[in-house]
Give the backbone structure.
Amino acid sequence: MNNPYITKEQVNEAFRKIYLEENYSFLEDDLMKLADGFIMAAMPAIRRTELTMCVNFVKSLNSDVAAALYEKRNKL
């Protein structure tokens, strides 16, 4: 399974750094499926936060451009 957001190496590294209550031995493909599921679940909140931060920055420079950016990006 090819995940455009995270590599197998990144998933394996993150899994090794996480303390779990039980000992688990996941197959690499299962770890990738879990990672993809978590990413997709978090994506709307990440997108909203990124949009808000960008619009706030642009607003500090030009409020008209910030309004246009918000209109354009909020429709996607």
